[in-house]
Amino acid sequence: MPKAASNADGYLLLHKNSGLTSFDALYQVKRALKTGKVGHTGTLDKFAEGLLVLVIGKYTSLVPIFNELDKVYIGTIHFGKETDTLDPEGTVVCTAPVPLRDRIFAVLPSFLGTQIQIPPAYSAIHINGQRASERMRAGQAVEMQGREIRIHELEVLHYEEPRLTLRVHCSKGTYIRALARDIGRAAESCAYLETLHRVAVGPFTDTDAVDPESGDRGVTQLQEALKPITPELFHQLNIPIVLLDRVDKTYVLQGRPLDPLLKDHALPQSSTLLGLFSSEHKLLALIEKASQGRTGAWSYKHVYPH
User: Percent helix, strand and coil across the chain, each rounded to 5?
Assistant: First the structure.
């Protein structure tokens, strides 16, 4: 029988399979770890597969940090058709001749860099307190506002008419479904995203993610995949750390002023976040540098009792 997972705290790299919703995947994790505190750092559509980075237990307050990470996808664009959802599960709303290969390849460089992208109407973005997708399914008109994104790299992996497979390295908030739509229109045709695989989130890759089996075996796999929040993780996230001794640990957990504590430590000038860890490498607090007021003043963002 799988062991009980009490006081589950940390992060977990989960592979979501196509055909499963992200919330179904999260429910499986909640059951296995016996906790309702599971924060996601970006969901995947039902038709998509790939990496979900989950933050568990008392560390769910770290979700905004993970949300800032770039993502890498491999997606296949199908030209000549566009669906209302911009994926294979939607209804075809547009057809057009498949553009020539040279035309498709000619427009790809225009999608590199910073740009304004109109998200899909079928999305989890909230409009006046309700998801845009819910409004669309209720027959309501939805006007999506453009958002700034950045596409760092577009690499062609394969082309065979009418399909183009790309590797996309992009900023948070980028919709690959919308990218497929826009590439199709730029090539004077139309298109939808046929397949999608999220292969990386920041320094984390799908090859390192757990793909749990069903039943007790899957529960054990998920419990064993839970990783602690460590100084090494903060280094991966490019957040500096300070290691504190036992006396300073008590000082921090009491929420006492930071300036006297930090005055003897060499602190980074560029970072606005800092992780305070115990000598046992337990995260005690996340602190932030004030954006206004006293120059260089640090304050508590979150404290994590142990």
Answer: 25, 35, 40
pLDDT of residue 3 exceeding 50, the answer is no
Percent of the chain past pLDDT 90, that is, above it, reads: 77
Domains of the chain (ranges, CATH numbers): 10-69+203-225 (3.30.2350.10), 74-196 (3.30.2350.10), 231-303 (2.30.130.10)
* C-alpha distances in Å from residue 268, one per residue of 183, 257, 260, 272: 42, 19, 17, 8
Taking the mean position of all CA atoms in its chain, how far away is CA 29? 17
Q: Quick check: 258 and 284 in contact, CB under 8 A?
A: no
In this prediction, residue 188 carries a pLDDT of: 97
Residues serving a catalytic function are 45
Tokens representing 201 are: 């989130």
CA distance 282 to 271: 21
**Residue at token pair 């553009």:** 99
